[in-house]
Amino acid sequence: MTPTRARVAFPKDWTFDLAEDLIDGIRDEFDPDDAVGELAPRVAGKPVDEAEEAALQFFTDYGRRWMDRTLELGEKYTDRAYETLKKAAERTGELAFPFIPERFIEIAYLATQPIYSLPIAENTVNTFSYKMVFCDTITALREQCGDELADRLPCRAGCLTAAGRAFTSKGFDVVVSQDSRLSDGEFCQFTVRRKHA
Amino acid sequence: MCRMCDSLGGGDTWYLNPKNYSNRMYKLREPGKRPTEALGNSPNAGAAPQGQTRSGLPEAIEAKANGDLDTFNKIIGDMNQRALMRPGGQVVPLHEVMEVLDMGMPVAAMMCICRKNTRACEECSVSEYSCMGLGTGMFKWERWPERYKGGVEFLSTKQAKEWVEYWDKKGMMHMLMQEGGDFIGGLCNCDYPDCGPIRHRIDYGLYAQLVKSEYVCFVDWEKCNGCGDCLGRCHYNALKFEATMEKAHIDQFNCFGCGLCETACPRDAISYFDRKKIPGLANVW
Amino acid sequence: MYPIVAPIIKIDQARCTTPFACKLCLQACPTAVFGVFETKMIRLEETDKHEPGNYRLRVIYRDRCSACNRCVDVCPEHALTVEMPAGVRA
Ligand code: SF4
Ligand code: SF4
Ligand code: SF4
Fold first, then answer.
1. ipTM, 2 dp
2. CATH code where residue B225 lies
3. pLDDT in tens, A134-187
4. Which of A49, B142, B213, C59 has the maximal Cβ count within 10 Å?
């Protein structure tokens, strides 16, 4: 008959959710409202191309700092899902792309945007793609800079930089693109593709 | 087109669309919500709430067992209607399972829940696991050790392919199962009678739980020499030996297109045909 | 399909207490009539199959029972009876 096997029971304090301190820590520093509040005076009254240039620099820097902090805190506050993922990636030699960077991208958005989960459009062997349907950054830009200017400012630079950084910091060579824009339609979609040597 | 391709295929076969395997890893709990501590499966699960009559499979089977075929047919008819709106599974032949595995989603071999429930099977290691969980949700399997009794094992694409081939050789057909609305969460290796969906379809006519594959198989009688290697592989009463012709014979209406007979034939006498291109079978799912 | 009346299968739950560990009838039945289900599923904990009452044996596919009595014969606890309903000639 079937062999008997020890019955498993895992420690009751194992957690599979993201730590509250992790989410709060990132939220405090990178609240989109505050970020836009910092940017708005710098673009106010400027000609559009100068405003665009200033915003590009601002968001690129914001995206970099935002993801760097997420990577730092995300490693500090781990959870069982991440531990299992790392073990599985080590065992199979495959799953690190895209799932390890995906974790940090999810954390970055969950901490700062009004969403409970990040809609993933694709996570496969060479591609990672996600959507932002509700974005506080564009809302804040519209409120603080006016609709017309808001739609021209390249807030995408923040998302593109952050997404790219999540992958490069884990050793992946990727190209990130924006496939659709919230200001033109229903959502922003960003896609990370692996570059092959 | 089967109903899943209709709603989820995006113009293609639904299970070849990577979108249907993509899933987030995390969600934030709404304020005040705690994780579930226990899932009920009480002895009375399935009993009708006060003042209502239930009409699910247990009631249908009870009616049939008592000789009341009218009630049985009515309940099954209602269930089929309701099931059209629900997720289901589809038979997928080996070569397409390989394509699916190439997408590189997390795959973890695990125990088969149907076999656990029908035969009290305990599968405790990768050489015994006969089912496979797909997607990022598998990273959280430890939440429910009873659901994943015997543990799980994450496999590389190559290992996963070998693992499916192993079960194919053993004579299990493959199906992809939806979990929730638009997410394919399971790759099962199934046989009759252990597998719930196969059994429910064949024995009770619940056709929406398990959809036939995109293919149907035919025997080329020029090539078939009647060796019989394919016989015994079919779980759907479609494959027979025709004694007068001394050839294998497939009933195209019974055939689910699982391809088990195809993978067993040493002479390439059995081949797949696209179900949608055969007018009389195009709507037979 | 013509109406056939299926046998009545009775499980004495007081005798069959640890079906997932025993599993003899589940594996003996030619048509897999039985099912076994955990009565509770607890977070982070596997259900103990040796603890009485943690699993429950149920008759799932009664219409497929032939009253061959193989299950009755293997049960060490004499927990099962399979009989044709009264008035049905064997
Ligand atoms: S005839 Fe062959 S392809 Fe068709 S269901 Fe049977 S084994 Fe599968
Ligand atoms: S009497 Fe035979 S067919 Fe009926 S449940 Fe027992 S073993 Fe199965
Ligand atoms: S053989 Fe008897 S004791 Fe064992 S599971 Fe079946 S009914 Fe219960």
1. 0.93
2. 3.30.70.20
3. 999 999 999 999 999 999 999 999 999 999 999 999 999 999 999 988 888 889
4. B213
Q: Distance (Å, rounded) from C-alpha C29 to C-alpha A85? A: 41
Please check whether residue B5 lies inside any domain of the structure: no
Give yes or no for a contact between B131 and B188, defined as CB atoms under 8 angstroms apart. yes
Cross-chain residue pair C44–B149, CB shorter than 8 Å = no
In a domain, C90, yes or no: no
Asked if the Cβ–Cβ distance from C45 to B145 is below 8 Å, we say yes
Kindly report the length of chain C. Answer: 90
CA B207, CA B200: separation in Å to the nearest integer? 8
- pLDDT of B52 reads 54
Q: Give the atom of ligand 3 at the shortest distance from the alpha carbon of C71.
A: 1
In a domain, B81, yes or no: no
Q: Which residues of B touch C56 (CB under 8 A)?
A: 43
Amino acid at A131: K
Confirm whether B98 is domain-assigned. yes
DSSP tally for chain B: helices H, then strands E? 8, 12
Domains of chain A: total: 1
Joined together, the tokens standing for residue C36 give: 């076994």
Distance separating alpha carbons of residues B178 and B214, to the nearest angstrom: 16
* pTM for the predicted model, two decimal places: 0.92
Domain that holds residue B220: 215-277
Collect all residues of chain A within an 8 Å Cβ-Cβ radius of residue B183.
none
Task: Confirm whether C35 is domain-assigned.
Answer: yes
CATH number where A81 lies: 3.30.1380
Contacting residues for C67 by C-beta, under 8 A, at least 6 apart: C7, C82, C83, C84, C90
Q: Which domain holds residue A174?
A: 20-194
Q: Split chain B (285 residues) into runs of 10 and give each run's mean pLDDT.
A: 77 87 90 79 51 77 94 94 85 96 95 95 92 95 94 96 96 90 88 93 92 96 94 94 94 96 95 94 91
A185 alpha carbon – ligand 3 mean position (Å): 62
- Whether residue C70 lies inside any domain: the answer is yes
Distances (CA, A) of B254 to A81, B229, B251: 43, 19, 5
Q: What 8-state DSSP symbol labels residue A53?
A: H
| pLDDT in the model for residue B54 | 64
